[in-house]
């Protein structure tokens, strides 16, 4: 259980680099540079919590000063007296240590005493995890520390914007992510069953127990005690092994402990009641729990890294950003309501959330510390409204590019790219697409891991992974239902789970035609349009439909299979099993088929053309022959373009879009024929609809990226 009552004072050593010394249990980065001087106060020195300061010593830190600042009583007056006691004791300590920077973490009342003392004694303060919103007195304390602090390290973009709105100097704000995620995202694969058995019993299995952690709400103590009582009743009824952690020492905690003892929780066979769990072990317990319940910030922040289901009770964390693993029960006023939430959440597995960090916070903070100039004036400056937009992005040591990992699974190649918010492909990786499922999935994982590591070096923050693939896709589940014949062993494939588990990122999957439409909506000629259709002309023929600004998937995820619109009842056979489809006429495969026929009859090559013996005849040879005057090649292309044009006419009559975008390598060769067919065959009411060639170079990759960038930047919890 994290306890946030320890601060670090640091002095620079001559000719050495800065380092971060963060000692909240569970993470730290230590390198030669700043000399850490640890001040241990509050809960760490509290005997009822088993003297957790020893955990700091076990991490090879020397505690310079340990102050007993907690006044017993567990009520509002005791909290005030504890702050006062700390304020009385701290000046002597700070005078003795004479630190240059005080690192203060979080929003506990103990931290407020540390920040107040440092500010009044002209010591620079770096505050970690400012700008967040929860829903109790912690908000007021957190924002008070923000006003006292000189430098700010925040975890989310919303927190960054809150700090800017609070008139903090944008030059002194770093959006780094939560340092605890650096440890969390590398912890899940360790041996965990021994830890589960140690705390919950030998007969307990992974995902078959609950972790409960509930604290008093100091602004409404009476209600929070009643809610805790209802929670325990619901857990007793739910009848699952449960690890219950004692509440913190805020006002109201004494009454909550009485409720636990009144209900016999400490002696109940289904419950294990403990005052503290070492952080390394706590990580494993929540990572493999069937559910976590309570109102701790740990539930809405750290637990999201594992996708563990969480039930957040009451208002204590009401303002927090959360992942989809969190179910809020804001009015937890009945046992049945909490019990129903347990039935809904227990045993589920959600995608891993990285709202609060991506595992690279510590390197960013180290870089930020290096930029601090101890010679600049100590007096804080406030940036009063109007607030500039994206101001924190103007500084080199803070600048990061919000980006997505985009994956394009084609019939021939497998491509992975880092794509920025502006649609710029920062870096692209290409490999041949393997023929078997196992080789393919391993290669995807390998390429994505390498790209994610490279993104950190390129100063890109990866928000998620988007995958474009051929075939019919269920985007809700991230599953390829049926693939095209070009990609073998690719039916009923769950792409979301292995990538999410490996990269700890949210993952989106969709059909390549739909991705092309999404790319046009965000980056291309469909931007701002309410209704348009995209047609891909490549190896096959695909497409995507945007209607009322949204992508149409259809009831069985089969919408926009535009390549299989039938334009002739007696046309050539199609790969789908039918005949007369657009794809049977106008796809790259169809043109290759016709080119081979001409070549076999010695009717393809004209003067100025040659095909090397080791080169397969393809669609491009047919196009080249047509350009050089081959009448038969010209006729085939005209027939293909006419078939495509008739398909577009059907689309115009069915969907009545405001724009049709032709995408892919063959689009420019078909555009004029398609427009001629529309003039001849379409109703006059749709003949003015514009048909254009896409100007996007990689629509599949850009569309895959847009799924990530659109969702992660517009989502409101």
TrEMBL record:
Family of the protein in this entry: In the N-terminal section; belongs to the UDP-N-acetylglucosamine 2-epimerase family. In the C-terminal section; belongs to the ROK (NagC/XylR) family.
Reaction equation(s) it catalyzes: an N-acyl-D-mannosamine + ATP = an N-acyl-D-mannosamine 6-phosphate + ADP + H(+); UDP-N-acetyl-alpha-D-glucosamine + H2O = aldehydo-N-acetyl-D-mannosamine + UDP + H(+)
CDD domains: ASKHA_NBD_ROK_GNE, GTB_UDP-GlcNAc_2-Epimerase
Localization terms from the record: Cytoplasm, Cytosol
Matches recorded under Pfam families: Epimerase_2 (PF02350), ROK (PF00480)
UDP-N-acetylglucosamine 2-epimerase domain boundaries: 35-370
Pathway in which the depicted protein is active: Amino-sugar metabolism; N-acetylneuraminate biosynthesis
Keywords: Allosteric enzyme, ATP-binding, Cytoplasm, Hydrolase, Kinase, Metal-binding, Multifunctional enzyme, Nucleotide-binding, Phosphoprotein, Transferase, Zinc
GO CC, alphabetical: cytosol
The keyword Nucleotide-binding is assigned to this record: yes
Primary location class: cytoplasm
Residues at the active site: 512
Domain of life: Eukaryota
NCBIfam families xrefs: NeuC_NnaA
Signal peptide: none
GO molecular function: ATP binding; hydrolase activity, hydrolyzing O-glycosyl compounds; metal ion binding; N-acylmannosamine kinase activity; UDP-N-acetylglucosamine 2-epimerase activity
Subunit record text: Homodimer. Homotetramer. Homohexamer. The hexameric form exhibits both enzyme activities, whereas the dimeric form only catalyzes the phosphorylation of N-acyl-D-mannosamine.
Binding residues for Zn(2+): 564, 574, 576, 581
Gene (name only): GNE
E.C. number(s) listed in UniProt: 2.7.1.60, 3.2.1.183
Official protein name in the record: Bifunctional UDP-N-acetylglucosamine 2-epimerase/N-acetylmannosamine kinase
Biological processes annotated in GO: UDP-N-acetylglucosamine metabolic process
InterPro entries linked to this entry: ATPase_NBD, ROK, UDP-GlcNAc_Epase, UDP_GlcNAc_Epimerase_2_dom
Binding sites annotated in the UniProt record for an N-acyl-D-mannosamine: 472, 484, 512, 561, 564, 583
